Every structure is written in C-alpha cells, then in structure tokens.
C-alpha cells in the first residue's frame, strides 16, 4: 500500500533528503514549508506541496484540511524537519542585550519546538492507526550543549514531548521516535560552509572519521518508518558517528 508521508521543512536539507528517499520507495509525499517557491523547486517526483507557517495555529488548520482533501485524511508517516539555526532568522529590532536574548530564545523555540507540537496535534487524529509513525529531528546539541544554547534547548524540549506521545499513541499502534544528527556537512544549517578548523574538530570527535551525510539521516528515518521498526518507540537514535560520546 502506498503510504502518505508528511514532511515539514521538506524543501531543503534533511527534510528534502528524506522526501526523496521516501518518494523513491513508492510513497506519496507532502512537503510543508514557509516558502512555496522552495517547495516547488525541490522537484521530488509526485510530491504535493503546501506552504504554511507552522508556528501559526490557523495555518496548521489549513494543513489539516489539505490532508483531508488531498490525502484522504490519512498520515502514515509524519516527519518534523522544520526549524534549524535561529541565528539565520531576522535579528531582533533592538540592540539591547536582553531584547536580543529574548528574541533568540523565542525564535528558536518557535521554529524548532512549536512547529513540531502544533503540526503533531493538528494531525493527531489523521495518523494511521495502527502503523503510524511520528519522527522528530533532534540534534547532538540536545545532549552536548552548544554555543547556540537556545537552539540546543529547543531541540532538547522535543524529547519529553516525544516520549509522552509514544505512551499516548502506542495503544493505537503508532510509534514515536527522534533522530539526533551530529555534524552534517551538506545542510544549510550554518548559512554557508563552516570554517575548516571547526569542521576538522567536529570530524575528529567522531569514531568514524567523517562528517555525516544527508543519506545517513534519510535512511535512518526511512528504516524507523518501516514495518521492521514497529516495536521501536520512545527512542532517540544517535546518528553522529559516536561524536556524542566524545574522544
């Protein structure tokens, strides 16, 4: 049976890589994001697109209506890839240091945490039962901290939410898991190539001696959404070459 796969942040980076992997496996993919032109340029075969700001409840209601109309009201796999580095969002209007802190933390929680919570709750009743899958993109920063502390905290906040969802949705035959990537060289997380010395440091922290790839994450998500992973839930899967353990 063709599955319906909904991916937030599906026009770029990890979300796009996941979309291409699921589409290649014969699934029907819906790409969500704020910029319709980016979603349309993603060129995922057979994908539907819907532009929405997932921090706004009314726009999430629009997603739900679209799912009802275009996907028969069924979501087999829900992947939360929206978010990222809040530093790349528009800056605070004020130069006051406290205003900057408030802006940084608010932005990071809105784009990384609130988007995931609103979309999950908005589509909760549409999740396939049994067999549904909910997958969150966390980060190694949720474990190790980061100089981007607001981002790290926003990703860490997804963990208790996912664990509670796993308990609540488990009786419906729905699993809930998180994937925590480490350094992935091919994303736009940094707004450009990271400094070579930083890249070398991150690679040196791994046990595998390399940066992660988009395929590493996409294939992990694909497996967690498969029947083979049907008894895995409430887990955080570390995909960082052992870097979370350090050297």
From TrEMBL:
One of its GO terms (molecular function) is oxidoreductase activity. Residues 3-187 form the Ketoreductase domain. It comes from the Bacteria. InterPro entries: KR_dom, NAD(P)-bd_dom_sf, Sc_DH/Rdtase_CS, SDR_fam. Its EC number is 1.1.1.-. Keywords: Oxidoreductase. Signal peptide: none annotated. SUPFAM superfamilies: NAD(P)-binding Rossmann-fold domains. Belongs to the short-chain dehydrogenases/reductases (SDR) family. This is SDR family NAD(P)-dependent oxidoreductase. It comes from Streptomyces omiyaensis. The lineage of its organism: Bacteria, Bacillati, Actinomycetota, Actinomycetes, Kitasatosporales.
């Amino acid at each position: 049976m063709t599955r319906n796969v909904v991916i937030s942040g599906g026009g770029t980076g990890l979300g796009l890589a996941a979309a291409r992997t699921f589409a290649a496996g014969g699934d029907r993919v819906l790409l969500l994001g704020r910029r319709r032109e980016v979603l349309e340029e993603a060129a995922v075969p057979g994908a539907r697109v819907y532009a929405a700001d997932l921090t706004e409840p009314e726009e999430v209601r629009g997603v739900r209506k679209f799912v009802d109309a275009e996907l028969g009201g069924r979501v087999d796999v829900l992947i939360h890839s929206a978010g990222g580095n809040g530093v790349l969002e528009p800056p605070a209007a004020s130069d006051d240091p406290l205003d900057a802190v408030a802006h940084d933390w608010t932005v990071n929680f809105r784009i990384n945490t609130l988007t995931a919570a609103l979309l999950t709750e908005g589509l909760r009743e549409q999740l396939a039962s049994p067999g549904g899958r909910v997958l969150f993109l966390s980060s190694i920063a949720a474990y190790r901290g980061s100089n981007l502390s607001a981002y790290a905290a926003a990703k860490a906040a997804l963990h208790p939410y996912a664990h509670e969802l796993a308990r609540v949705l488990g009786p419906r035959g729905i699993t809930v898991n998180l994937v925590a990537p480490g350094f992935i060289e091919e994303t736009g997380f940094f707004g450009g190539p990271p400094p070579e010395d930083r890249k070398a440091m991150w690679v040196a922290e791994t046990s595998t001696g390399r940066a992660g790839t988009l395929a590493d994450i996409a294939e992990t998500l694909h497996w967690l959404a498969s029947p083979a992973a049907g008894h895995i839930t409430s887990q955080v899967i570390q995909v960082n070459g052992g870097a979370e353990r350090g050297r």
